[in-house]
## 1
Amino acid sequence: MSEILIFAEIEEGDLHSTAGELIAAGRKISDDTGDSVSVAIIGGNQDLGSKAIALGADKAYIANDNAISEGVADSYLAALHKICLEVEPNVVLSSKTPIGRAVGPRLAYRLGTGIAQDCMDVSADSGSGRVTATRPVYGGNAMAKFTFAEKNPQVIIMRLKAFESAEPDSGRSGDVVELNISLDESDIKTKLVETVKQESEGVRLEDASVIIGMGRGLGGPEPFSQLEDLAKVFNGAVGASRAVCDAGWLDHSYQIGLTGKTVTPDVYITVGISGASQHMAGCSSSKNIVAINKDGDANIFKEASFGVVGDWEKVLPAFTETARELLDS
Amino acid sequence: MSLNIIVCAKQVMDPETPMSAFNVDEAAKRVVPAQGIPPVVNGFCENAVEAALKVKEGVGEATITVISVGNDFVMDVMKKPLSMGADQMILVQDPATENLDALGTATVLSKAIEKIGQPDIVICGQQASDWDNAHVPMGISEMLGMACLSEARSIDIGEGTVTVASSRSDGYEVFEAATPCLITVNNEIGEPRYPTLRGIMQASRKTPETWTLADLGLSDSDVAPALTLTELFVPVNDRQCEIIEGEDEADSGRLLALKLREEKII
């Protein structure tokens, strides 16, 4: 029996929210192959190891070294590479976070193995242990399934929220193992000079349960305040299409899509968004999509469950006002 | 100081191809090129060319070499980086590149960069709009032992160092590395410039050099795939949109809110 190794990131001293998602994906592969699920926690402690076990892992590796520099992909890459050489996993799972998507592919190339990026689903052949990964291609216009050649580990980068984390079960048991790794200074080729936080007011796009989407159809930056007003009604956030950000109407931090943020709100209310597949790739997992657009043939109406075909300048104020009344009452 | 900048670029199907013209041959597991819609230089690769031109303007002296791997180049399309202002272009053109996966592509590009020799920086688009792998550049950095600075939205060149800012969901991070290094960029680096008439004229007089895999010392077994495509399909969308219509557009807006409430969506 071999192992499925999960690269669990740390955020503010705790396991990153994606750790549980990756463990769930690992469990699914494990159901097919019988491999155990291990978690690599780089720069962490025993306590985080126990948390990973509670989330469904069979084993946790804790690796620390003074050369590990927080937020620098090179550090995690070098550490994970050393762990892989020791553990020899069949599969490595990483998440499509800034660190995860920088570490996973480079690990695969360093080990000379295959890598599948931005995967929505995984399964494995029980006999061969080969994983099949399902991922969007051509900007989300098509879906592809890939299987890996013989070499291990098969490196898979999971899309955020592709799997749901299990509820922690403190009754689960598993080993938490400290690994001695020693990084070479030459492994760390980049230096993090500065981290600049630009706190946006209100709810973070990734955390919002209601998102209002701003599209090119709004014609300019001015309508943003009206969308913000609507977002406030739901305690939600405003996002935007790439066209809006490229035009400079909004900062790129608002961008939803294949490049940009992947969001999964309960409701995504789009205003003047045509629904190009490139955009939909970042929001198609929303529970409900609502469309306001003057072009009844726009692709967004193929994705939405409710919509109005009309001029947003007339539709939106009435919609906002009614929604406010309904939610206040 | 004259910088040696290499930009990797890919020819792709136009991502603006309407869905009605987007067809997948499921048996052959390939996307059928849309009739009458020419391919384009991948968008983020144009951003990479733009980034290189900005770097060149900043340092004064630099040579920008664009390299690409493929088998069915449309020369008018591929010359765009040259008309934007790149100095020279090398096309690795070989029937064996037809079925390259990301590992194979990174192998070929790395060998081509080694053959060009002594790059100070390699700039790549973050991902190509066909297979959306987003890791060929990282493969190149690993194969060449270079630092990898990903998703840069700005690039500053120092004495033997490069500093980039990379966007994060709540701001940005600044990273520094020594040259030679590899940088990936996306649309956040800025709109690719339009070729000027003068640029187009100059490009028309340049002939890209072409290399084969044999020129790079590569055989078929060196570019064996690590991944096999087993299925390719257009996802079925069975969502039905209920269009809300009121007496006028404002009324439709009001009814939409009521409907969403009734359905317990809001």
## 2
Amino acid sequence: MLTIERIMKKLYALLLGGGLLVSSSCSDFIDLTPTHSLSSTTVFGKLDDFEPVLNGTYASMRDLYAYGLFQSVMPDMMADNTLETTESLVNYKAVTDWTYAADQLRVAEVWRFSYLMINDANLILQNITQFESTNPQRANRFKGQALAIRGLMHFNLLRYYAPNFDRNSTAPGIPIKTTPVIELPGRATVKEVYDQIYKDLEAALPLLNDVDAAINTNTRRSRIDAATVNAILARVALYAKEYDRAITFATAAITARPLASRASFPGIWTDANADEVLFSIQFNPGEGGPALDVWSPATNRAQFDPSAELLSLYDAAKDVRYTSYFTPGASVPGSVNRATRVVSTKYQGKGTARDGAVNFKAFRTGEMYLIRAEARALSNRATEALADLNTLRAARIADFTPRTETGQALLDAIATERRKELWLEGHRWFDLKRTTRVVQRVSCRAGVVCNLPASSPKWAWPIPQNERLANPNIAQNEGY
Amino acid sequence: MRRFVLLFMGVLAVLVQTALAQDRRVTGRVTSSEDGGALPGVNIQLKGTNRGTQTDANGNYAINLPAAGGTLVFSFVGLARQEVVVAGQSIINVALRSDASQLSEVVVTGYGQNNRREFAGSVASIPPVRIKDQPIASLDQLLQGQAPGVLVIANSGQPGSAASIRVRGSGSVNGSNTPLYIVDGIQIEAAAFQTINPQDIETISVLKDAEATSIYGSRGANGVVVIQTRRGKAGKTRISYDGQYGQSYFPRSRLELMNSNEKINYELRRGGTDLERLSAADITQLRSIDTDWQKEIFQIGRTQQHQLSATGGNESVLFYLSGNLFSQTGTVKGTDLNRYTGRINLESNSGPLRFGLNSTVGYSIQNFQTEANTGIASPLNAIRWANPYEKPYNADGSYTQLRSGQPNPVRELNETSRQFNELKTVAAAFAEYDLPFLKGLSLRTNWGVDYSNQEQTIYNSRFGQAGTASAVKGRQGRLARDFYKSTRFTGTTSLNYSNTFGDHSVRVGLYSELVRLKYGTFGFTGYGLSGILQNEAGITQNNANQIPDTRGDGISNALLSYFTTATYGFKNRYFINLNARRDGSSRFGSAYRYANFGSVGASWVITDEPFMRELTTGVLNSLRLKASYGSVGNQEGIGSFASLAIFQARGARTSQTISSYDGNSTVILTQLENPELRWEQKNTFNVGVEFGLFNRRITGGVEVYNSITKNLFLNDQLSRTTGFNSINRNIGELQNRGIEIGLNTINVQTGDFSWETNINFTLNRNKILKLTPTTPERGNIAGNTINRIGYPINSNWLVEYAGVDPQTGAQQFRKPSGEITTTYDPNDAQIFGPREAPYFGGFTNTLRFKGVELSALFTYAFGNYIYNNDRSNVEIPDYYADNVSRALLREWQKPGDITDIPNPNLPHQTAITHFLEKGDFMRLRNVTLSYNLPSELMRRAKMASARLFFQGQNVLTFTNFLGFDPEITGGQLTGAQYPALRTFTVGVGIGF
């Protein structure tokens, strides 16, 4: 005889069975996996899968907080190469006027975003070990690039956040991240950070010289290859004042990518050619641009103008850089209000496009000549230094007669040439930081801060407030 | 088993005896006083006896009475009991009135109906008659001020836009705070209400505490809005038409901007802008222009609505059919909503088997403008920023280019269109069967689907700035279209037992429920619209610089629940409710998928106690106490795969979307692995009292609640060296406690005149009780918001502004120590008030005289603070090439000036209390004057009813907030505000 309880039990079982219909078991119904994205178990399944992850990191470099602004043109905007106009949306005023405090969003995001790309590299480096034996040359190709990216990003962080660039400085640098784990790291000293940067880059070099396929071509320089690593190392060594190493690495980079001719120079900026380019971050139409916050060709909004002081340094008629970098406002279509101004058209677009989507030349041979000239001048090799400087000037200026600067005049000439050559390429703020530590904005308008003395704490960005709140092991820079 | 049978026999014996004692016969018809329709199923009982009957499908009844007559009691759930002394009458016709907030009311929880007296949970019922005529497309917006504990903030006046609803405060930080919406037993999407027709609604109940929401367990933590659509009414088929027409107006902005002269003088005084380079004659010419950019963008909106419905049936089949057309143009040019809905509700009740179908199909087309942003191309921002000395058009009719470099707002408005279409079907079928072998045992299954197909199109022509921006490949216009397909099915199957044994009543239900959502998107963006065709057919193909973009995504998630509910009643005045459930969610890692929840409640009808009998006749008509405690879970608002590390082929890391590099595919990490994530749990204690006084002239209730969310989803801040800001973890505890008061009073009732008042008030206190041990003592800070123990969630975190230094004009700040400084230090920030209003409610006054009714609804919310970013954008002196606030006319200019506006040439901060404003407001949300034509006239016109009305929506607003509208959630007015519409309509309702 059936009791009520038994009837109920049977019915309940029936109900559930009926309710579930097609599902074979209850837990299957809620056991779902992503179909349109990958998880950690599916993303590094085979060696070829590392390539899109690496591409993702390169694509991230287009971001505002990497080479979309802060590593591309912000160092010029922060110094005396540009002046903010009244067209500015003042989105970066706290940075360009050095009024940043530790809670400044931009200061926080450059920090986080650089570490995000470091985390990508660490994920690759952690997962690739299992494939190294099966196809070592292909593994080298990915591993070498990941190491180089990790080194470069640590260097980019050091540039903004460290109080000084001395090779053996015990001043606090930045945290070193070599594993993709959640932790609360402290700040390594500047020296330790340099050690790590050198270690990564010098480990990348042999790997990238032993790969299964060419990383770049002569006309496509979108990835970091061995030549780029030499260029990164040359820049690092210059900041560290290790001049012999700077000369060696710069020479290696120059050998790999000779200086462009004056005829081909303008084509570099419209991506008609990639002469002397070592590594450029690819911006295709619709992917933003490296300098839209200086002048946006599409909307014709010039938030920053080249400073009159900078413009006066060029021989406007003969210097190919002047015509490649600038256009008189009257010649820019649609400018109702810029007849008397000069517009920064260096990053106007690819070919004849006017959208600002043009590759950012992060490393090119012009800089290598200037690094080598400076390193030679500062290590008692003035003749070679002058030769490098004259070679560069002859390549840029028509009818150039070699000059004969020596001593401080030579150093000043190298610094001036650096400013002219590398305008809007992300150097000026750091060049001042590692040399005079003074910004003096000439013909500066009301509403813009005009001078930054060497004594200012602003030469080092503050450690972001949100980092310090989450991570008690991080000390703040002085003055914040 | 034997005892049951004996009891059953006893009941049967009583019935037989009653049947034998007949004497005389009374007949009649019972109708609804509201619409005159027949009421089937009304209980009619001879007072003091067991003798009784029910009305048939046409509302007719017949009852045999003893010769002495007596008093007949007419009762029906949801309607007021009525007693009629029979005396010598043989025909007694009765019209029953609706009876809100009374113990006889039905409580609709979605799974069947409960009698209010036995229900210990907290439920607010909103009579649909109060909201159905309001000229607003979105149902959620209509709930404002209608029920205690339910905070509705409109956020936007754009036709079809959704409101923000919080039931008893925000119980979650990272999870969802949006209530669950159940229509005819199935879950529907909370975000898109513009395609549901509010006129089809029969009842709306808002379930608030753990006891009431426990049957929705995993989905009910934020409250549940249960909607039942209209059922058919038996009897002659009745056809009704309802229509209305009206106009909407843009409200005045309390934020004042400079006029042409003021602005030109200001710019010239500051120097540095383009005006300096103009000649005196040019300046004079500019002064003669004074464009009101609002007039260029705004228009008078128009609303019309037409509804045709039919209802009827017989004892076994009931039907309701309706068709509705709603058309509204907004007050911003180019914004409108057109909606077409149809509904069929069918129900069959034959013998032990009942089954039915409720189904609706809706289609809506919405043209919209962007809002709540700081984009320079948003016309609603441009009306603030465009200078008054500029004109929209040149003499030749072409668009002007503004000197400030800003886009011309009229150009952006005309050259961009945004459209959102939705096709939505909500269908639910149920079957219920009374099992033959045990009385009171029934089996019910309810299956439904909420399907929506949405399509969004954004078109930027090649003549506007947006269509030639650098993001537009080739800069020759752009057409972006995205398709969204969402299918959510809900299946609930239950076995229910309900019976009464003398003084004991029992109701038990065993349930299993499945909910599964599948959501997919696909979209494309085409470029190069340089030809004649300005639609998808005109997209340029095979051009390397104008490669179209495509995108797609898909997610799914599922819930599986088993639960049981039980109610035991003794003497029809003591009740106990019990609920227990087990829920599984696909969103969590395998170790934390399942969780158990439950609740217990009790209800005591004090006025039914014998010792209360003397009191109940005069003063105290009804009094009930109830209390409940229970837990519900929350897993909404977190990602479908929240426990996994997620790598996406196409994703965003900051604002930029990453989908390829140098023409090659990419994969990026966008979410860190989070295997320990588990259910958020909300425990609520609720106690309430309900009363009726002075012959029910005063009715109402007071409830007090205390709910604590445990395992609160909260962003655990990470060292940014991980590359991520935070990870969602179950840290923390949050408390919401409050008091709710609802009161209905009949102030005057004399002859043809009556005055009724309905008041509701809520106080909700929100407080964080616990954060993760690694959280610094000062709290979890993200930008201008802070979560700190002892304070409301997402409190404002700003540095206090202390005015301007009269000597230098520099901004001054007050440190927590009280010291005044001109050095801004984020460490000096302090907590300044909550972002969510702790006090809110509404009150309605209704005056009736014969057929005329005047009712006015006021709603209010206060105690919250809003960061006015919209104001900061016109007070930042750096933006002086664009138009700025008149406040800058009083800015510091020379030493000795005493003002609150600083020297424009010094650095200035904006994360300061200068831009924090009180969000308090009260508004006359709705006022309606209506006239029901006399029934005598109707009968001659062969009509059942006719009604004319005039109404105003958002007629008056009382606030000090410096903007168009203080109804803002999230604690910040970002910019580009589209305020609530001020609408006036006239309407008619006719029934045949």
